[in-house]
Amino acid sequence: MRRTLICVSHCDGAGGDDVARLVAGQLGLRYVDEEIVSGAAQRAGAEPELVADAEQRKPLLRRVLDELGATGAAGMGVVGGSPPPLPAERRGDELRSFIGEAIEAVAARGHVVIGAHGASFALAARDDLLRVFVTASAGTRARRVARDRGIDGMEAERQIRAADRTRADYLKRFYGVDDEVPTQYDLVVNTDVLSSPEAASIVVHAAG
Predict the structure, then answer these.
(1) Residues 115-125 pLDDT 10s
(2) What is the sign of the dihedral through the CA atoms of 61, 64, 68 and 74?
(3) Distance CA 194, CA 202 (A)
(4) Cα-based distances in Å from 124 to 7, 157, 161, 184
(5) pLDDT tens, 82-113?
């Protein structure tokens, strides 16, 4: 069975973004990640207070899908009215929840590679999904982060640890994942030795 819905999760410094984009290009699929969806939401006017309003949420979601090219609709209207401001933490949670809904809506249309941390968990019930995790050892990840961001090794290690904590907190808060383990994915790719193109070729083969 050929998979045309692929979720690529990854830890910081493992090269997962590159792998996911290469997979999308080789299979002729769209590529979407949380940053892309967040940008589309911003362009569509999805302010935190509007996202928190149940009546505004569905129209906003349609507009975000339009921005992503998922619906083919042309126009974007103006949404009126603003509920009272939300506390900062809840605003962040509402936006993350909304982005999760948008990712699920994109997935429902298929033919997409999704490079979002929690997508494999949010979409786990689907039988047309290939769940991929791209990882590497802490040392390899730190060296890549230091090189790519122009920072020293100690700062790179600190950023890696912070990113791992943030990732673990995100998965626990939004998907109830206490411990992330390999069996939660269909394919785990270690990029310690594999290049991004080599890793992408493995994923493409697994997709059928």
Answers:
(1) 987 899 989 88
(2) positive
(3) 10
(4) 10, 31, 27, 9
(5) 333 333 344 456 777 788 888 888 888 889 99
Element (H, E) at 7: strand 5-10
C-alpha neighbours within 13 Å on the C-beta side of residue 28: 1
Mind giving me the DSSP string for 135-182?
A: E--HHHHHHHHHHHHT--HHHHHHHHHHHHHHHHHHHHHHH--SS--G
Do residues 155 and 146 touch, judged by C-beta distance below 8 A? yes
Please give the Cα distance from 170 to 82 (Å, whole number).
Answer: 28
CA distance 185 to 101: 21
What region does 72 belong to: left with phi over 0, alpha with psi -120 to 50, or beta?
A: left
pLDDT of residue 92: 59
Spatial distance between the Cα atoms of 11 and 19, rounded to a whole number of angstroms: 12
Alpha-carbon distance 118 to 167, whole Å? 9
Residues in the chain: 208
The tally of CA atoms less than 13 A away on the side-chain side of residue 5 is: 18
